[in-house]
Amino acid sequence: MADHLRKYETLFTLTPQRMRMIVEAFKEYLELGLEKPKQTVPMIPTFVFGWPSGEEKGDYLAVDLGGTNLRVCLVTLQGDGKFEITQSKYRLTEEQKQEDGQKLFDFCAESLKSFIDNSLMESGQMKDGQKLPLGFTFSYPCSQQRIDHGILIRWTKGFGAANTEGEDVAAMFHSTLEKYQLPVELTALINDTTGTLIASHYVNPQTKIACIFGTGCNAAYMEHVKDIPKMKELNIDENADMAINCEWGAFDSDEHEHLPRTKYDIIVDETSNKPGEQAFEKLISGRYLGEILRLVICELIDEGVLFLGQNTYKLENPYAFDTAFLSLMESDPTDELLMIIGIFSHFFAVETTLAERQFFRALAKLIGRRAARLSACGIAAIVSKMGYLDEGCSVGADGSLYNKYPGFADRIHEGLVDIFGERGRNITTYHAEDGSGVGSAIIAAMTKKRK
Ligand code: ADP
């Protein structure tokens, strides 16, 4: 397997020099997105003005439509950077992601209703006749002109619900909330990345950037309104700051080829429900890493290198290989790699040799490391654009990939040193506060204060 591994090492390894080139290109995309509408990296103004004071207080509801789950929460902000949260989670089915958008929002409202009726009313956390502000965390690229409005630009993360792209999702959700007569006031439509930025700053004011590495991948940061040329005609106070939702997953989704894509990445793209979109995200996020590894394995099966004489049909199903398997493979502590034996025999009904298992583990490492180093390029682009390198800053990061993939954060930090040299150590990522729940509540509170 050693020869094969060398080939994949060459394909999946990013040199520091290549990373610096990516950072330079990335910066240009960020600037362009701020300058004009409808750019590859859309740099969406969020209408969240400035940082929270840390003193925001009160009870807020949040609905979070994530890539995998729907979550409803009650957040009690206590001021002084403190909060409490009560929540329920509902798994989204693949059908729900594809059916009519209004039905998807109906499901959100039904889940919120059952949370209020069965959990909050029962426990006395909410009382009859009480109406609470609601933040709706909707983590798909939307263009906003106000905080309680947002036109869905396009679905990402495998969603494709009909009659939703090009529509005002806040209005759609609002009408559903009315239909179910819920005691809430939809105050803010936010993106989880923006929420993570605000929630992380609420508890750690060193935070300047937030990133999500989950089903998808995205970042947000605080920009000076005077440096957002495309907002000039809105006549917003030039001294104000506004959070920008970069939607950086779209970086390089155009005719330029800044990213070193392998043929497996190209297959992932071409067979996805959105070919040509989210080029950066497809090399990084949890939805795709397992699939990249599966495609390499399938190629070696076709070449007669792996699993000769065994039935490999289970491995041939697209997306059969979850990114969580890469985590498990990398963290297998046994010499025999028993965890990897288990994954392949239990989930895919194939036997593996020790040499093959070592190869799979090495391959997972290459794919996981490339994802982390590309993430470092994105962070470096924002750091460099905003001039944060010398004074340093914290980056709040969230999502299963960041939280559960062994060594993901260390690899980002190594990548930052490869890009910036020793000064790269001034930038540190940490596990962020719950952006889509707490962040949404803080933004709802900040919005109430502004009104
Ligand atoms: P979301 O982004 O949908 O809100 P998550 O942050 O949990 O939710 O991300 C889900 C993604 O993370 C899925 O694509 C899944 O494959 C991946 N994932 C789940 N568990 C792990 C793990 N242990 N290691 C790496 N990736 C994981």
From TrEMBL:
Its EC number is 2.7.1.-. Gene3D superfamilies: 3.30.420.40, 3.40.367.20. The keyword RNA-binding does not apply. GO terms for biological process: glucose metabolic process; glycolytic process; intracellular glucose homeostasis; mannose metabolic process. It catalyses: D-fructose + ATP = D-fructose 6-phosphate + ADP + H(+); a D-hexose + ATP = a D-hexose 6-phosphate + ADP + H(+). It comes from the Eukaryota. It holds the Pfam family Hexokinase_2. GO terms for molecular function: ATP binding; D-glucose binding; fructokinase activity; glucokinase activity; mannokinase activity. GO terms for cellular component: cytosol; mitochondrion. Keywords: ATP-binding, Glycolysis, Kinase, Nucleotide-binding, Transferase. Residues 208-446 form the Hexokinase C-terminal domain. Residues 5-202 form the Hexokinase N-terminal domain. Pathway: Carbohydrate metabolism; hexose metabolism; Carbohydrate degradation; glycolysis; D-glyceraldehyde 3-phosphate and glycerone phosphate from D-glucose: step 1/4. Belongs to the hexokinase family. This is Phosphotransferase. It comes from Hebeloma cylindrosporum.
